[in-house]
Amino acid sequence: MTYAVIMAGGRGTRFWPLSRRDNPKQFINVATEDTLIQTTVARLLGVIPVERCLVVTHDRYVAITKEQLPALPVENILAEPISRNTAPCIVFAAMKLLERDPDATMVVLPADHVIQNVKKFQEVLGVCIDRAQEDEALLTIGIEPSYPSTGYGYIQYEGSDGYSDEKPMAYPVKTFAEKPNTATAERFLDSGDFLWNSGIFVWRAESILKAVAMHLPKLSGAFSDLADSIGTDQEETATLDAFTKSPSISIDYGVMERARNTFVVPGSFDWSDIGDWQAVYELRSKGKHGNVIVGNAIVQDSSRCLIHAEDRLIVLVGIHDTVVVDTEDVTLICNRANAQQVKNVVDYIGSQQLEEYL
Predict the structure, then answer these.
(1) Looking at the whole model, is its pTM more than 0.90?
(2) Could you tell me which of 298, 315, 303, 309 has the C-alpha nearest to residue 17?
(3) What is the pLDDT of residues 230-256, one digit of tens each?
(4) In the chain, what are the domains?
(5) Rounded CA gap, 257 and 142, in Å?
(6) Three-state secondary structure along the chain?
(7) Which of 194, 188, 190, 179 is nearest to 264 (CA)?
(8) Cα–Cα–Cα angle for 68, 105, 140, nearest 5°?
(9) 152: which residues sit within 8 A by CB, 6+ positions away?
(10) pLDDT digits over 277-289, tens only?
């Protein structure tokens, strides 16, 4: 059967001060009325029922996951004792799934993406699932780029001349490319055979574990003792030991860029990894003069601003292209073009040991 593995352990520091250590990005409603993790589960329904959805998250987020996803079986929440990037997270989930179903196929996806054309997304996902179940193929979904983004990784694929939006299909991957500079991104778009890397993967659980054993032997070795402990009193201790020994590495870099049996299915649905406040501004509906207002605000002679106010009245006069996020204890004000730098502020606050603001 097919299962979803939703990765929900990140901190979301670029969404500070709304995203905090105890209530990070995936559990807040920055783009819609529902939280990002709730919309992630909702868009899978019809393809994968909630009882076959697993959430892998840090153990500090188990309680909030239960609260936000009450229909999710408790045993489907997998707690990571230590954050070690996506490859260990995926190995952990694959081993748990194999114990449950030796023929399990995994749809691996982040909890914090926004996808607006759900029907088209499910169609592309179905193509991936069918292809993954044929052999040991490792698949990813690529997004047709709409502009030369420097914030996304790219996937170059074979057979782009035969691409049809009406009939999605899997194409062999030529190369994976890291986030490019502007000139390189423009060249990628001009070539016509590059897609944005969505970070959504599909494969059989057995296939990904074989690939990890081949390309990441140290990671595979760190988890080697866990299989015999699943379902026993030793599982928690074995899980901690595995994550402690494991290197911190992404599945993209560790496996997908090295494996030869990789395929991509292009998707034309509206997708965003909603990486910062600028992305929220682009997604939200805009009022007069291009302003996005969430909460209580008065705006005069101001344009193209994003205002998120939790309690207090926010007043802007003569302000343009600015993000204002007001919470109980912090107010963030930054230019929209500098939204990525919010992460640096969080790093600085941590270095100053101002823990109450994290």
Answers:
(1) yes
(2) 309
(3) 988 899 999 999 999 999 999 999 999
(4) 2-272 (3.90.550.10), 277-357 (no CATH)
(5) 14
(6) CEEEEEECCCCCHHHCCCCECCECHHHCCCCCCCCHHHHHHHHHCCCCCHHHEEEEEEHHHHHHHHHHCCCCCHHHEEEECCCCCHHHHHHHHHHHHHHHCCCCEEEEEECCCEECCHHHHHHHHHHHHHHHCCCCCEEEEEECCCCCCCCCCEEEECCHHHCCCCCCCCEEEEEEECCCCHHHHHHHHHHCCEEEEEEEEEEEHHHHHHHHHHHCHHHHHHCCCCHHHCCCCCHHHHHHHHHHHCCCCCHHHHHHCCCCCEEEEEECCCEECCCCHHHHHHHCCCCHHHCEEECCEEEECCECCEEEECCCCEEEECCECEEEEECCCCEEEEEHHHHHHHHHHHHHHHHCCCHHHC
(7) 194
(8) 85
(9) 143, 145, 179, 196, 197, 273
(10) 999 999 899 998 9
CA geometry: angle 292, 298, 303, nearest 5 deg: 45
Report the C-alpha gap between 307 and 302 in whole angstroms: 11
Confidence of residue 164 (pLDDT cuts 50, 70, 90): low
Pairwise CA distance, residues 203 & 87, whole Å = 14
**Structure tokens that stand for 337 in this block:** 């073009």
Short-list 82, 75, 79, CA closest to 99: 75
111-131 pLDDT, tens per residue? 999 998 999 999 999 999 999
Closest CA relative to residue 153, chosen from 253, 6, 84, 280: 253
| CB distance 221 to 246 below 8 Å | no
Rounded-to-10 torsion of CA 27, 29, 32, 35? 20
* Residues 260, 325: Cα–Cα separation, whole Å: 45
Q: Do the beta carbons of residue 207 and residue 136 sit within 8 Å?
A: yes
CA distances for 71 relative to 34, 74, 199, 260, 340, angstroms: 15, 9, 25, 38, 35
